Task: structure prediction
Amino acid sequence: MTIPEIGKKCAGIYSPTLLQVALLCFLFFSGVARAHRDSPHIVFLNPGHAHESFWGDVDRFMSAAATQLDLRLTTLHGERDVFKTLDLGTRIARMEPPPDYLILVNEMNSGPRLMEITQNLDTQVMFILNDLSPEDKEALNHLNGGDSRLVGSLIPDNHWVGYETARALHQSLLKQGRKEHYRWIALSGDDVTPASVQREQGMRAYVGEHEDLTLLNTVYAYWEEEQGYQVTRQLLKRFGSVDGIWTANDHMACGAIRALKEAAWRPGHQVFVSSVNSSQKVLDALERGVVSALGAGHFMTGGWSLVMIHDHWHQRPAAEQIHLQQPLFQLVEPQGAFYRILRSSDWKSYPFSHFSRVLNTDKWPGYHFLDPTLELLAPTAKAP
Result:
């Protein structure tokens, strides 16, 4: 027998048959499928831009949580366009296979319509940051005999942060020297989104408790720096001078600061500014004293919701609905522990599993997110 003939003989003996190849593929992909069923697929419909300071932070914190908890996360962005957000809801409704969980934000009151668009999906739904109204929840309960897809919600206490940033702004003014009256203006987000409405309500509640504070006007700057700049210019021209500017987010605060400087007012000395969020830009302003009061931390809500979803997935079918409202904010002090955490942004090292009921059956602390112990759990971060 020649060498080529021997080669052909050996190849005939050892080459896999079509049936063997098919069997190997079946076993491989069955294993992948089983692994995926042990790891739920979650779609987060982010209503903002990926490049925005707040919504980008939401994405990054959620990504770190998903990696640590072995969850498959897909994020889609509505780019602050409610019509695009609803279009993405339609795209999600056509996904094959459908996701196991869908995380929604009731931004611009889009939540009820998104629930309607996705009503035929066999997908569990959680709301974060902006919840459905009690009336909308009641309507869902009567939809087709009850909508059982809603498994929970995690909502920050926006009234708290509105009130507390107003208090901190007032305290900054008092430290400069007491006056009979302090004149304020306020830049709110919009008149529909629950977070905006509740922050403004918190601010107004604080102002109403103090006779030395006069709120001259509240305007909507729609969360944008340019809008914040334009409306602050107009208000400064109208009122001449103000002592404090309360803002509902960092973009609007940066616009207000630009308008103040253009009008030759010194923010942090002549006019005091408060805000919410934790972009590096606003943290810089806080450190320099340009921003006098800052609340932050609620960007973590998405990551914490993944902890809750992780536990829900592993507790099926006994898992219960959990609806939580927690502060999820802290006031940020320059060079304080929370400030250093925000500067570091080392979310990959964050102890998400510590808060999981499934992973901590003996010493589970409960779903108490962003409580004082968090500073002890966070990675050590040196001040820049």
Notes: The longest strand covers residues 213-220. Residues 3 and 358 are 62 Å apart (CA to CA). The mean pLDDT is 88. The chain has three domains: 3-36, 40-156+299-329+360-377, 159-296.
